[in-house]
UniProtKB/TrEMBL annotation:
The keyword 4Fe-4S does not apply. This is DEAD/DEAH box helicase family protein. It holds the Pfam family EcoEI_R_C. InterPro entries: EcoEI_R_C_dom, Helicase/UvrB_N, Helicase_ATP-bd, Helicase_C-like, Helicase_Restrict-Modif_Enz, P-loop_NTPase, Restrct_endonuc_type1_HsdR_N. Residues 171-361 form the Helicase ATP-binding domain. The lineage of its organism: Bacteria, Pseudomonadati, Bacteroidota, Flavobacteriia, Flavobacteriales. SUPFAM superfamilies: P-loop containing nucleoside triphosphate hydrolases. PANTHER family: ATP-DEPENDENT HELICASE IRC3-RELATED (PTHR47396:SF1), TYPE I RESTRICTION ENZYME ECOKI R PROTEIN (PTHR47396). It comes from Flavobacterium macrobrachii. CDD domains: DEXHc_RE_I_III_res, SF2_C_EcoAI-like. Keywords: ATP-binding, Helicase, Hydrolase, Nucleotide-binding. It comes from the Bacteria.
């Protein structure tokens, strides 16, 4: 319909929303209150004028809707008008004031229940169903009224922090605050606290249903177990004897339970009416790198109306309640309660800064609820600086998927960094060096742990690995280095051959395994009280995720439990745990959240997982199609046949064609024309509804093949058939080891001694005299001078060798760059000590920065001050200064200049400017 005014457009949208929510819309002149349970009559006359809609339920008026045009976004200006209609007398009826009042402009809906103690408008996703308003109408009090009937909390059996959290939360409910945040340190009983207040809400506030939302299947299973084990103190019966608890594992939601446990991924798929395989619930969706620019909107689902739940408890709420997943929470008309040990700024903002419990790790340690930790560092040469495998070296290569090895000669030098270890490059020596150092130092960390045979008893130790393949390498080396059998060390990941839950139970309760290796399965929510050591062999960039991983070791453990389940030789209760940092995780920069904007290069696994979770945007499906097209070109015929077998007989090309057609404008236009022809004469709303349903069906059929986890795993695994290089050439060594506090003290001592030595020798060493000179224009020195200084330092103070002092600085402050060699390190250190640089900066980085600044200044006011040939020569001079600290005419007889024509080439390029250029570079590059 065209030429509609803005208010009529808003009314049409409201009509659609009412019909979807189960209401029958009627005209005031042709109404029939017996036509259904819920009737919305337009323009019903009251004694203060016609109301836009009056809502009747079971022939009784219960509410009104005041409609405004879409341009009016500030609906609060119409609150008095709407309340006036609600209090008015309806024509021909002697009604009481109507309790339920809606304001809507078609885009925003605000709802007020005037039976509440302090009626306050709140935003709702859409209109409540007629049967809901009927039930509410029959209740003597509203839910918000019943929240004032909660009795005093019995405090027996509760910790002080739990009592504070529950009391403050219930006060927040009574103040009608829609969101509340409970921060409680990992191990202080968050879930027990949640079940306690859930029990009170069900018993005393007569809440109908409560959703317990998690972000991994593992957390859901643990929560279900805790609900089933909870005994109500006031009743002495199990929770499940009193109330139904259902953990959702399909798209079906029964309506006869009171507590529903679900992953946020599954609830999203339920609202979207798409199927979700359980494998999509294995990982925290916040770890998925892909975020579409526009989240796929959740639509109304009559099977799960917005009022289905009264409360939603969000466990680990710091992780997965933003962006795409936030829609699940926006959909329901509920109170929201967040649980977390590690909130960040986003979390505080989302919960309206309503922090009802602030019980962090430090407070829990002071109270004896958790144990403190010490950090022990193991740093190796290769994890820090990487290494090189020379061209022509015969090396092992290994397929990532099958781990099959084969020999191959390198056709070029393979230079790798520490960050590439266990991904592109595997160096068994590095793993072995770390494990051996761990084994050698455990007896020092836990003295007197000796069994009756005189053997040291290894404490329960959890290793965090980078990947599943990395975990396999670690397990093999752990068993070998400790000289133990299979059961001594086991893997606990989602991809382990053994049931991970069974191994986890063994690790928690039995003597074996002593050491467990995991990637991320037990990063959160797993109670392993006897655990005493965490070995980090993977870095973590997320601050909250790192805190969760550390939380595995924070639990207290009595001497009796420690002896029974962990370590029989223990002499005392668990009073601390140890973090062994073998990757620099304690020093690496942490962030509160991931950036919202994503760079290109999303992993194929992330795309497949997002599609399986119901993300079927055009951008997503197109990205997947493009990835499959590229994959198709790389696969053998055998692999393509295997794809077809896993894809219900479809080839890659057929799947790609469907993906590209799902949002194709021509395909969608033809679909609309077909539906319009088939439903000619039907109401426009019905035709539009049928078109939307057919579009949804098209997309569902397109992505149906990807609900099969076997196909997703096949695609991801086949992509992984890139080879890892096994570096058996370079043997690793420990460069730094010890307790962090001891390391810091030692570093301070080293730096102080170095400063004293430099200060005491500044007058007698030419190089230092130049550095300390006030005339900055002449602050240059020769390679020979700095070489002599370095030799003097190492002779007089061998423990103050430049690289040793550099590492000491790294313990104390953030450094810029790395020391390429000891002479560059020494110059960098001198600059730091005398105050030229405020932070320790690698000299070559200083030279690079000064060179860029100099070129920029030369180019100012003119397009290009130097030709490309001149720029190439200047860059060579810059690199030479970075390594030799100055340059003069004699140096042009040396490499690399002599190969390019030497000083004569310099004159040819710069002519009369040659001397000036050399002098300027000596002056500015060392500034």
């Amino acid at each position: 319909m065209t030429n509609q005014n803005p208010e009529q457009i808003a009314r049409d949208t409201i009509d659609k929303q009412l019909i979807a929510s189960g209401w029958i819309i009627q005209d005031k002149k042709k109404f029939n209150l017996a036509a259904g349970l819920g009737i919305a009559i337009k323009e019903y006359v009251t004694d203060v004028g016609p109301a836009d809609y009056v809502l009747f339920v079971d022939k009784t008026p219960v509410g009104i809707i005041e409609a405004k045009r879409a341009e009016i976004g500030t609906l609060t200006v119409a609150e008095d008008q709407a309340e006036g209609y609600a209090k008015a007398k309806l024509r021909l009826l002697n009604n009481d004031p109507l309790p339920f009042v809606y304001l809507s402009n078609g885009e925003i809906i605000k709802f007020t229940d005037f039976r509440d103690p302090k009626p306050r408008a709140r935003n709702v996703f859409t209109f409540h169903r007629p049967e809901t308003l009927l039930n509410w109408f029959k209740e003597p009090k509203s839910l918000r009224g019943r929240l004032h009937d909660l009795p005093l909390l019995p405090e027996d059996g509760l910790r002080d922090c739990q009592i504070t959290a529950i009391n403050n939360l219930e006060k927040s409910f009574q103040d009608q605050r829609p969101k509340a945040l409970i921060q409680m340190a990992t191990g202080s009983g968050k879930t027990f606290t949640a079940i306690t207040f859930v029990y009170r809400l069900l018993k005393y506030a007569k809440a109908k249903r409560i959703l317990f939302l998690v972000d991994t299947k593992n957390l859901g299973e643990q929560a279900e177990g805790e609900f089933r084990a909870y005994t109500a103190q006031e009743d002495n019966r199990l929770f499940t004897e009193l109330y139904g608890v259902t953990r959702l594992s399909s798209s079906f939601i029964p309506n006869d339970s009171q507590v529903y446990i679900s992953t946020i991924q599954r609830m999203y798929s339920i609202l979207k009416e798409t199927e979700l395989d359980e494998s999509a619930e294995a990982e925290n969706p916040n770890e998925t790198r892909f975020e579409q620019k526009e989240p796929i909107p959740v639509g109304y689902n009559e099977k799960v109306p917005i009022e289905f739940f009264d409360f939603v408890v969000i466990d680990e709420c710091h992780r997965s309640i933003y962006n795409l997943w936030k829609q699940v929470l926006d959909y329901f008309d509920v109170f929201q309660i967040g649980l977390t040990a590690t909130p960040d700024n986003r979390t505080f903002g989302y919960f309206n800064q309503n922090l009802v419990s602030d019980y962090g790790y430090e407070k829990a340690v002071i109270d004896g609820v958790l144990v403190p930790y010490n950090v022990f560092t193991i740093e190796t040469e290769i994890t820090k600086n990487g290494n090189i495998i020379k061209m022509g070296e015969q090396v092992d290569k290994r397929e990532r998927l099958t781990r099959k090895k084969f020999w191959e000669a390198l056709d070029e030098d393979e230079i790798y960094s520490g960050k590439q270890l266990d991904k592109d490059i595997v160096n068994p020596s590095t793993i072995r060096t770390i494990i051996r150092a761990t084994k050698e130092n455990l007896p020092m960390m836990f003295p007197n742990r000796v069994d009756s045979n005189g053997n040291f008893e290894v404490p329960k130790l959890l290793i965090f690995a980078k990947t599943d393949s990395h975990a396999e390498d670690i397990i093999e080396i752990v068993r070998e280095e400790f000289g133990e059998e299979n059961k001594f060390c086991k893997k606990i990941t989602y991809r382990s051959d053994e049931d991970p839950k069974s191994v986890l139970q063994q690790f928690r309760n039995d003597y074996y395994p002593r050491i467990a290796v995991t990637v991320d399965m037990i990063a959160t929510g797993t109670d392993i009280r006897p655990l005493e050591v965490l070995l980090f062999m993977r870095d973590v960039k997320s601050r909250s995720y790192y805190e969760q991983m550390k939380g595995r070791g924070t639990r207290t453990c009595s001497i009796e439990e420690l002896k029974a389940k962990g370590t029989p030789t223990a002499k005392f209760s668990k009073d601390h745990f140890v973090i062994i940092d073998a990757i620099g995780v304690e020093q690496s920069q942490k962030t509160d959240s991931r950036p919202l904007e994503k760079v290109p290069g999303i992993s194929l696994k992330d795309i497949l997982t997002s599609v399986a979770m119901g993300n079927t945007s055009e951008e997503m499906l197109t990205s997947l199609a493009n990835r499959l097209i590229r994959l198709d070109k790389q696969l053998s015929e055998k692999d393509k046949a295997a794809f077809t077998e896993n894809a219900n007989g479809q080839t890659i090309n057929q799947v790609v064609k469907q993906l590209l057609q799902a949002h194709d404008p021509d395909t969608l236009q033809n679909l609309e024309i077909r539906i319009q022809n088939e439903l000619r004469g039907f109401a426009p709303i019905e035709i539009e509804k049928a078109i939307d349903a057919e579009k949804k069906k098209l997309i569902d059929e397109t992505v149906a093949v990807f609900h099969n986890p076997d196909l997703r795993d096949f695609i991801v695994d086949i992509r992984k058939k890139l080879d890892q290089i096994i570096d058996m050439v370079n043997i690793d060594t420990v460069t730094n080891i010890g307790w962090v506090k001891d390391n810091v003290e030692a570093a301070n001592t080293t730096v102080t001694e170095f400063k004293v030595w430099i200060e005491s020798h500044k007058d007698e060493i030419t190089a230092l005299q130049i550095f300390y000179a006030q005339d900055y224009r002449h602050r240059t020195f020769t390679y020979k001078m700095i070489k002599g200084l370095c030799e003097k330092l190492k002779t007089e103070k061998p423990l103050l060798a430049p690289l040793t002092v550099w590492r000491a600085y790294e313990q104390l402050e953030k450094t810029n760059g790395s020391a390429k060699n000891e002479l560059i390190a020494l110059v960098s250190l001198i600059r730091r000590v005398v105050g030229i640089d405020t932070h320790l900066t690698a000299y070559d980085k200083t030279v690079d920065a000064n060179f860029k600044k100099w070129i920029f200044e030369k180019n100012a006011g003119q397009h290009n001050a130097f030709t490309e040939a001149q720029m190439q020569w200047l860059r060579m001079m810059k690199d030479y200064v970075a390594n030799s600290f100055s340059i003069d005419k004699d140096d042009f007889d040396l490499s690399p200049f002599n190969a390019e024509g030497g000083l004569s080439k310099m004159w040819q390029l710069f002519g009369e400017e040659t001397d000036k250029i050399i002098n300027e570079l000596n002056e500015v590059l060392a500034a």
